[in-house]
Amino acid sequence: MSATYTSKIRLTQQGDGDNPNSWGTVLNNGVVSLVDDAIAAYTTIEIGANATVTLSAVDGGYDVARSAFLEVKGTVGGAHTTISMIMPGGTSPIKSKGYVINNLTTYTTTTNVVKIKTASGDGYTIPSGAITQVISDGTSVWSTNAKGLGLGTAASADIGVCATNIADVSLADLRYVRTSVTANATVRGDLVVEAGSLKVGTSARAYNPITTLTDAASITSDFALGNNFLVTLAGNRTLAAPSNAVAGQSGCIYLVQDGSGSRTLGYNTVFQFVSATVPTLSTGASDVDMLVYMARSATTIDAVLLKNFDR
């Protein structure tokens, strides 16, 4: 009677009366060694130009698909943006299997994909750089999820800077100081967040950087980027209404004549001036004026022009 093979990891099963006086060799090579692979073998899989890489499956002999641990290497994103590793599948008989996968693949873009799947199933997309565990029932492939790891939703929150990740917060970065507190808290040295206020100690400095604006016929500014701005005028210009102004915001806009001078500046009607008199700029070459402002509302900005900073 001929030998048969187990349906899941393809181990040799002795047929009645087979291999007289040599069953030990068959047992060692077709069962014991293969069980060893199924439990502990670490196998490297090279992916390349092909859209699919089929994991070899051999009844009673060495194959890749039987290994317990798979290391994936190579590059995806050349001829194919998705490369699939095909594992043995089928529900009759069931070819269930699990792997721990170490994904060391190089991705040419963030949209590239490496999957593990059966020939007929959708499979599982292996994240770049992931060490993950997958299981298959012969049709579908699943990975260990956050609930299984006991991490809740934190398991899917990467550390980084983007809309879907946890913010990269520095103690030196005031953008992430809480907007309201119920008790005083020292954030850093002389910087104290009090209930309803932010206090800076006498030995600490507080400043807002100067944002350089792009010179154009209509000079635009985004007040969400800061409070202080600078622009060098290379022609007769108009200062457009700023975007994202908020009531109570104050600062200054440096207005610098270029090497030729004699540049004029008009103002959008959101800018309001003392005695309703629109000021004129200093006109000398490289003269520096400063427009000091406070936003009364998002569409009303009170301003005073201080002229010709020099000595």
Protein architecture, described:
- There is one protein chain.
- The protein is mainly beta and 311 residues long.
- The chain folds into three domains: 4-156, no CATH class; 169-204, no CATH class; 210-306, Jelly Rolls.
- Helices cover 7% and strands 35% of the residues.
- It has two helices and 24 strands.
- The strands form six sheets. Strands 3, 5, 7, 8, 11 and 12 form a six-stranded mixed beta sheet that branches. It has a six-stranded mixed beta sheet with strand order 16-18-20-23-24-22, with no helix packed on it. Strands 4-6-9-10 form a four-stranded mixed beta sheet, with no helix packed on it.
- The mean pLDDT is 85.
Map the helices and strands.
Blueprint (H helix, E strand, L loop, with lengths): L3 E2 L6 E2 L9 H18 L1 E6 L4 E3 L14 E8 L5 E5 L10 E7 L2 E2 L5 E5 L6 E2 L5 E6 L4 E3 L2 H4 L35 E4 L2 E4 L2 E4 L9 E3 L5 E2 L8 E6 L3 E3 L10 E8 L7 E3 L3 E3 L14 E10 L2 E7 L5
Parallel strand pairs: 3-5, 4-6, 5-7, 5-8, 6-9, 16-18, 17-19, 18-20, 19-21, 22-24
Antiparallel strand pairs: 1-2, 7-11, 9-10, 11-12, 13-14, 14-15, 20-23, 23-24
Give the N-terminus to C-terminus distance in angstroms. 108 Å
In one word, what is the shape? elongated
Q: What Rg do the Cα atoms give? A: 35 Å
Count of individual helical segments: 2
Please give the share of residues in helix. under 10%
Number of strands: 24
In percent terms, what proportion of residues is strand? Answer: 25-35%
Count of separate structural domains? 3
Which structural class do the helices and strands define?
mainly beta
Biggest sheet descriptor:
6 strands, mixed
Element string (H = helix, E = strand)? EEHEEEEEEEEEEHEEEEEEEEEEEE
The stretches of 5 or more residues where confidence is low (pLDDT under 50) are none
Q: What is the averaged pLDDT score?
A: 85
Oligomeric grouping of the chains: single chain
